[in-house]
Amino acid sequence: MRPNQSRKVRNYAVAGSALAIAAAVAVGCGVTGTDTNRAGSSLTFDPLPSAPSGASAAPGSGVNPGALPPGQTAPVPSPPAPATMTVVVPPPSAAAKPQTTVPGTPAPAAPPKPAAGNGGGSGAPSGQGDGAPSGPASPTPAAQAQARSVTKPVLLPDGSVDCAKSKCVALTFSGGPGPVTRQFLQTLDAHGGKGTFFVTGAQVNLNPDIMTAIAGTGNEVANGTWTQPDMTTLSDADETAQLQQTNDAIRTSVGSTPTLFRPMGGHTSPSVVDAGKRLGLTQVLWDLDSMDYNYQADPDGLTQVLMGMKPGQIVMLHDTFVSSATALDRAMTALSDQGYAFVTVSQLLRTRAG
């Protein structure tokens, strides 16, 4: 081989190696595609835990939907462990009570004593509440008489529920208003219940008919901030603006000003609480976090979580998931038969204050 031909061969070999190395680097850096776990999703999840501070109700732990700060990426929640639950709802004439069956849980020898009506939840079932199903064991005559005595809420002269003498639970909804909100309103109405909707201000003007439906059916409209930021990262002026703009939108939409607010994800601080107070807003978090975003494909699992609610609790859900509406309907069917009443946060807080 002549010297010139030898040099050309060496040059081609070097160039080919360089191209191969560049291609490998590009693949390793992800230049050739998009992470499928992040592509095409309009809903992100805040990885920070709830931060109770100055709250009127202790929040549950866990993550909650909301916008991430710039530069942060959202982890993909692990799928929940498989759970099987059967809720049996008897006809009005039947004597049997709804039963909950969880694999691996032995039936108790006798019905348990009623549990206390307070305590925080973490999104997973925290135990059965007063009057909750106790398994296949046959109740004693005394237990049957006690069950019959709490099958209906006690009403006040004005027709509202007396939460001092009834098993009241406040169901709350964040993330809306939106198309799925209608399904939650239908579920509440079917069970004679009311809920509190912490609406996102930026979505209020986009869904005027939904807002009218919420307020027009006796449910409570509350302030869920304008864009659901982490309020603890904002200046005092921006905290106030998030709440004030939402107040203005709600007043324009339904003609009333809210008295309650909830910071996204439970991220709060004394400054956030004070921003609400300046506008006449009381901060409300929750006692039981359903973590319903983890159960979008498992309404039975979410029903199991909701069956763990106890009298006196504020329960956290999102009116953005169809599976949450399905699970809520099933849980309300069973719990209503046990004498539970579903009221607004303001009504429940009046009982707590008393």
Automatic annotation (TrEMBL):
Compositional bias (Gly residues): 117-132
Region of interest: Disordered: 42-149
Record-linked Pfam families: Polysacc_deac_1
UniProt key word ATP-binding: no
Domain NodB homology: start-end pairs: 167-343
InterPro entries membership: Glyco_hydro/deAcase_b/a-brl, NODB_dom, Polysacc_deacetylase_ArnD
Keyword Zinc-finger tagged: no
Compositionally skewed regions (Pro residues) per UniProt: 105-114
Coiled coil (UniProt feature): none
Low complexity: bias regions: 51-75, 83-104, 133-147
Keyword terms: Hydrolase, Metal-binding, Signal
Signal sequence interval, chain numbering: 1-26
Record's protein name: NodB homology domain-containing protein
